[in-house]
Amino acid sequence: MTTTTTTTPVTTTTMLGEAPLTAGEYAALCAVRDGADIFNRSLAARLRAIERAHPTFLDICPPMGTYGVNDVYPYFGAICTAEGKRALTQYEDAAVSGGDASGATPDEVTADGDTGGDAGGDA
After folding, report:
1. Radius of gyration for the alpha carbons in the chain, expressed in angstroms and rounded
2. Whether pTM exceeds 0.90
3. In the chain, what are the domains?
């Protein structure tokens, strides 16, 4: 008689009790880990989607910088909360151990330019 055992990979699902972060969500949260004004439209849309899916992971607020009349004005400011930083750490740990749901390592996520990762700049 043979027995088979299966193991489930470690993901943020098992640690947080929520859906795991996708590679794009990970990259977007990394862009606002310490706070940023958001000028990039695709990053703004991704952060709004994260706000709906994981409302405790980031705070969206008015822009943090001071901008002149002729300056490009950001969509909003955003900063990763303590729970969001914990989710990032767990994603990174899961990716290092090979348990990430997307199969991408943190280096691959930030290198592929999926969200433009640029919190400030190109409008």
Report:
1. 17
2. no
3. 20-66+74-103 (1.10.10)
